[in-house]
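Appendix B, record 7
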Amino acid sequence: MRIGELAKRAGVSVQAVRFYERRRLMRTRRRTLAGYRIYSEQDLDSVMLIRKMQRFGFKLVEIRRVLQLWILPSDSGGASPYQRGSHQCLHEALKLGEKKLETMNDEIRSAIQIRDELVEALGQIRASLNAPTRRELPQITRSPSDLPPSPNFSLDSIPRCRLQNALNVLITRGTRRIIGADAGLGLSQRSHISIRRHP
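Structure tokens (predicted):
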């Protein structure tokens, strides 16, 4: 198959396949007379495995070490040490996977610790925002004994005509139902009520 078909079946772009080749994650394939590279089913399996390991968080150098177990030659150019699916190959792959898992767990624990520190810092900021500032002084409730004395008040300080008018209004509006016809008082009688000043 050509590179376009390989990329489509593996679910990656053509640029991704070429990138894997440049990083020596795939074997170099022969070219046709027209200059096209021909890929095999084994290449398709390699690309799909590379994609899956990238999703698991493996770095390219870690992916290469796994592929060198049965697909890629060693860094010195030697052949792969194991056959695909053999007990030794699976055992070595398991060790590499467990090592990666341990590294991921350490990163997760570190991330949780950093998250907890951030939560604590944000809590301190919220507490400082809710705390009263120096300008916001608490209100003090004063008892009546603490209040300053009010000035002396006397009816003599109010003009007599104003007192008379105010009393007439109160009598007319507020006591009509009480005095009314039962008391036998007319409006004319109530209008002549006067106030005497105290000696």
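Remarks on this record: Residues 181-199 have pLDDT under 50 and may be disordered. The radius of gyration is 49 Å.
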